C-alpha cells in the first residue's frame, strides 16, 4: 500500500479527451452566429479601408507601432492619449463583471476567443472524423491508413486556421495588402514571420488539444466568478426537484430525467450539469438544447435544464412561479456596474470630442536655472515638444503670458513661429528673457504661461490654442 505522505495524490488529473456530440437548438444556433460574426470581424477588419487624406494610412483599424499611433476609423489615438485605451480596458473589465453578475459566464460560453476557436476546431474535427461515436471509435482505433489520413487532414486544416489567425493578427500592425505581398514574396520582416509562427502553433495547440484545460487551469476567471455571482444571478441549472429520481420513462416515482446522458455528451467541458454548479461550466447552453430535444421526444415539459436563478429554484420547489428576469437584472449590484460602465464610456466620448488637435509639453532647462546676459538680462531656457495632430503641416505661434512683459525667442528660428509637419512632433528650444530692472528678473520665481496657437485653424472662439503653466527663475535678490 502506498504511503500518501510519500506519494501524495496529483493535483491535476490526466486529461481525458472530450468528444462533444452535435446538437441543434436555440443556444447552438446563437453560438454559430456569434462565432461567424466574431471570426468575420477578426479576419476582415484589417482589410477595411478608410480615407484619411494623403499623409495618413488608409487602413481603418491600425496599430501603427512605428509612428506610435492607433487608428480606429475616424479616431486617432496618440501615445499621450493612452488613457483612452486604459479607459476601454476598465470598461471591458466592468462589462465582464456586469454580465457575469447578471447571467453567469456568458462571455466564456459565447464570445471568449478560446471558446470561439475551440468551436471552430471541433466543427472541423466533426467534418473530417464524424460525430461523437465515430470520433471515439477512431480515437481507440489502432494506427492504420484510415486513421493517419483523417488525422493528417484534420491537423492540416487546424494549422491553416492557426496560420490565418496569426496572419490576421500581424495585419493589424501594418498595411495589410503591403504586408500580405511581402509575406508571400519573402520580403517581410522576420518579426512578422516569427509572430505568425507562434500564433499558429498556440492556436493549433489551444483550440485543437488543450481546449477545456485552458478554461480550467490557465484562465483565472472561473476562480473569480464566484465573487461576481449571487443567488439572483441567472445561470444554467438542473431542476433537481423535477428530474429526480432518475430512471426509465413512465415508471412510478421516477422524475422527468431518464438519465440519457445527452446533456453530458454535448458538453464541450465534459461535465454533468446535474451535479450542480461547477468551476468548469462555461454556461454555453448546449446542455439545455440537448435536454429540450429529449423532453420533446418523450412528451415532457422543456427546461428541465435551463437558465435559472437560485432564488427561482427555491420558489419552484415551493410550487411558486419564478420571478421575472428583469427583477434579477435590476438589482443594486447590476445597477452599480452599469452606472460605472456608462460613466466611463460617457467620459471617454466627451474627452474624445473635446481634445485639441494640437498639444505642447514644456520642460524647463535647469542646468543652469537661469543665465545673466552681458546687459544684465535674465534668460530662462525651455524645451517645448509641439504636437501637430492635423493631417497637414501647420505654423504654431508661441507667446508668453506673465505679470509683466517678457521677451521670447526660438533657437534657430526668426520670430516666434514654428512650422510643424503633418501628424508629427517637433522639439524646439525657447528662450524667455526679463529686462534687468524688471520684477521677474529680481524675483526668485515668477509664474508664467506659454501659449501655443495654431495659425491654420479658426473656430467660433478664435484660433485653436493650448497653454502650459511653468516658472521663470530670477536672481532672487
The N- and C-terminal alpha carbons lie at a distance of 91 Å
Strand content: 15-25%
Rg of Cα set:
32 Å
Low-confidence stretches: none
Q: What is the count of DSSP helices, taking H or I runs of 4+ residues?
A: 17
> What is the strand tally?
14
- Global mean pLDDT: 88
Largest sheet: 5 strands, antiparallel
Number of domains: 3
Global outline: elongated
The class by helix and strand makeup works out as alpha+beta
Report the helical percentage. Answer: 40-55%
Task: Describe what this molecule looks like in 3D.
The longest helix has 27 residues, at 145-171. Strands 6, 7, 8, 10 and 12 form a five-stranded antiparallel β-sheet that branches. A four-stranded antiparallel β-sheet has the order 11-9-13-14, with no helix packed on it. It is of the alpha+beta class and 477 residues long. It contains 17 helices and 14 strands. The protein has three domains: 26-226, no CATH class; 228-331, no CATH class; 358-473, Immunoglobulins (Immunoglobulin-like), CATH 2.60.40.10. The model has no long low-confidence stretch (mean pLDDT 88). It has helices at 26-44, 83-103, 106-111, 113-129, 132-140, 145-171, 176-185, 190-210, 212-218, 221-228, 240-243, 262-265, 286-298, 310-317, 325-329, 332-354, 439-442, and strands at residues 61-64, 69-72, 75-77, 235-238, 305-308, 358-364, 371-372, 378-388, 394-401, 407-410, 417-420, 424-434, 445-459, 462-473. Helix 4 runs antiparallel to helix 6 (145-171).
Amino acid at each position: 500500500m502506498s504511503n500518501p505522505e510519500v506519494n501524495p495524490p496529483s493535483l491535476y488529473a490526466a486529461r481525458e479527451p472530450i468528444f462533444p456530440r452535435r446538437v441543434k437548438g436555440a443556444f447552438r444556433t446563437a453560438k454559430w452566429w456569434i462565432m461567424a460574426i466574431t471570426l468575420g470581424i477578426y479576419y476582415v477588419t484589417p482589410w477595411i479601408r478608410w480615407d484619411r487624406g494623403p499623409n495618413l494610412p488608409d487602413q481603418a483599424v491600425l496599430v501603427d507601432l512605428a509612428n506610435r499611433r492607433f487608428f480606429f476609423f475616424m479616431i486617432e489615438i496618440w501615445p499621450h492619449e493612452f488613457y483612452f485605451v486604459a479607459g476601454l480596458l476598465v470598461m471591458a473589465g466592468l462589462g465582464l463583471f456586469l454580465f457575469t453578475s447578471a447571467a453567469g459566464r456568458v462571455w466564456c460560453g459565447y464570445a471568449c476567443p478560446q471558446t470561439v476557436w475551440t468551436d471552430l476546431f471541433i466543427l472541423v474535427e466533426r467534418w473530417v472524423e464524424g460525430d461523437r461515436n465515430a470520433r471515439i471509435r477512431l480515437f481507440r482505433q489502432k494506427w492504420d491508413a484510415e486513421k493517419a489520413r483523417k488525422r493528417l487532414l484534420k491537423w492540416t486544416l487546424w494549422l491553416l486556421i492557426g496560420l490565418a489567425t496569426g496572419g490576421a493578427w500581424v495585419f493589424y500592425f501594418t498595411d495589410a495588402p503591403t504586408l500580405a505581398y511581402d509575406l508571400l514574396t519573402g520580403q517581410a520582416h522576420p518579426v512578422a514571420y516569427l509572430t505568425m509562427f507562434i500564433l499558429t502553433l498556440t492556436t493549433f495547440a489551444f483550440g485543437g488539444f488543450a481546449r477545456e484545460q485552458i478554461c480550467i487551469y490557465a484562465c483565472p476567471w472561473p476562480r473569480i466568478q464566484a465573487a461576481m455571482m449571487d443567488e439572483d444571478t441567472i445561470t444554467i441549472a438542473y431542476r433537481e426537484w423535477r428530474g429526480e429520481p432518475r430512471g426509465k420513462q413512465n415508471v412510478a416515482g421516477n422524475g422527468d430525467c431518464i438519465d440519457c446522458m445527452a446533456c453530458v455528451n454535448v458538453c464541450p467541458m465534459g461535465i454533468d450539469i446535474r451535479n450542480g454548479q461547477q468551476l468548469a461550466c462555461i454556461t454555453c447552453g448546449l446542455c439545455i438544447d440537448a435536454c429540450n430535444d429529449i423532453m420533446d421526444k418523450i412528451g415532457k415539459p422543456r427546461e428541465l435544464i435551463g437558465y435559472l436563478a437560485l432564488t427561482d429554484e427555491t420558489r419552484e420547489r415551493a410550487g411558486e412561479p419564478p420571478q421575472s428576469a428583469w427583477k434579477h437584472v435590476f438589482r443594486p449590484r447590476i445597477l452599480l456596474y452599469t452606472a460605472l460602465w456608462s460613466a466611463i464610456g460617457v467620459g471617454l466620448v466627451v474627452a474624445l470630442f473635446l481634445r485639441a488637435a494640437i498639444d505642447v509639453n514644456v520642460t524647463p532647462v535647469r542646468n543652469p536655472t537661469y543665465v545673466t546676459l552681458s546687459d544684465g538680462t535674465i534668460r530662462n531656457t525651455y524645451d517645448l515638444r509641439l504636437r501637430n495632430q492635423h493631417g497637414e503641416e501647420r505654423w504654431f505661434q508661441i507667446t508668453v503670458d506673465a505679470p509683466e512683459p517678457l521677451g521670447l525667442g526660438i533657437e534657430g528660428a526668426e520670430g516666434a513661429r514654428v512650422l510643424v509637419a503633418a501628424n508629427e512632433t517637433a522639439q524646439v528650444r525657447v528662450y524667455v528673457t526679463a529686462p534687468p530692472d524688471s520684477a521677474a528678473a529680481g524675483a526668485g520665481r515668477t509664474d508664467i504661461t506659454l501659449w501655443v496657437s495654431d495659425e491654420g485653424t479658426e473656430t467660433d472662439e478664435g484660433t485653436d490654442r493650448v497653454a502650459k503653466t511653468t516658472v521663470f527663475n530670477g536672481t532672487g535678490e
